[in-house]
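During data preparation, a discrete fold description was generated, and the record follows.
___
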Amino acid sequence: MDAQLCVDSEVGALATVMLHRPGAELERLTPRNSDQLLFDALPWVARAQEEHDAFAELLRGRGVEVLLLADLLAETLEVSGAARIQGISSAVDPRRLGHALAQDLATHLRTLAAPELTRILVAGMTFDELPEAGVAGPPSLVRLMHHGADFVIDPLPNLLFTRDSSFWIGERVAIPTLALPARRREAALTDLIYAFHPRFLGVRRAYESHTAPVEGGDVLLLAPGVIAVGVGERTSPAGAEALARSVFEDGLAHTVLAVPIAQQRATMHLDTVCTMVDTDAVVMYPAIRNMLEAFMIRREDGDARIGGPRPFLEAAADAMGIDKLRVIDTGLDSVVAEREQWDDGNNTLAVAPGVVVAYERNVETNARLEAAGIEVLRIAGSELGSGRGGPRCMSCPLARAAL
């Protein structure tokens, strides 16, 4: 295990990060399936790749080691037969395909080289793309009754947002359950990487749940030992409580703040309305600044004690041991603030205390950050943002310097 893999804050100098370069999975999006696959528009894929490449290069230019998820997955499938079996099993659903077709498809996938298998596990496969040769037994009714462009394996366009399917707390990685059907298999692929890739051998798990959903976009490491968890569309109260109890048992945190957020598309995760930009500062959507509350969960006498709710900013500062959190608003004009919140103005990625990556389109938010002394590294996001996610959503930090 790499002893340097450790994350105990949102803002410690970023050393290693996992990204996913968008690819053929985005080309599967159509007006007919984009809602189901959680995209608000059909991205221009080549431009999205250019934007993502620039994002990755900016991070490398700041000395960050960038690991690409698809490369890690291909390497995992190359070295581990168990990973291949599990990856294929997670993608091939006999309940939907029927036993015979599922068995034939799995047999075919087992013959593929690791790069091609990786491509299919990420980009999916249509019925038209099923191989004709080697299909044993009688014709499949499932195959005959589906349109050729229907998916026999669903694509994973949201894999772009690596923050959700794994997140680190200290020296441990959490593999959560994702809430919506379109995303659940993402965690299965990420799990393979952490379980079988040589880079991560010996890494211990912080939290694993196959029931109550928790997504990484809802988890903010406010300070060492202090975690905020948004509870809304993607993370359930049961998931937040299970995470709190798990990190308490492992000694990874002393306080977890459960923060209710609106269950709607514009505020799907806590990091769509609030992210850390310095050790004592957040950028926040002003419409919720005085409304956001938190239930404070602390470990006392070997059990989790729940108090509140209290105003979030007050509870967070108390848990962090500081007088107050500095708040930088997305914008004072309500229309501008709403537009820039929708365009992920609050979804910044800190690469060091007081230095963040942000979408260039959020002009007012970026200006307010700079006026508050925060260095803003701007990237284009006209196509990357079509899935409603910014620089924080698109990155899973694996190592940060301790504060």
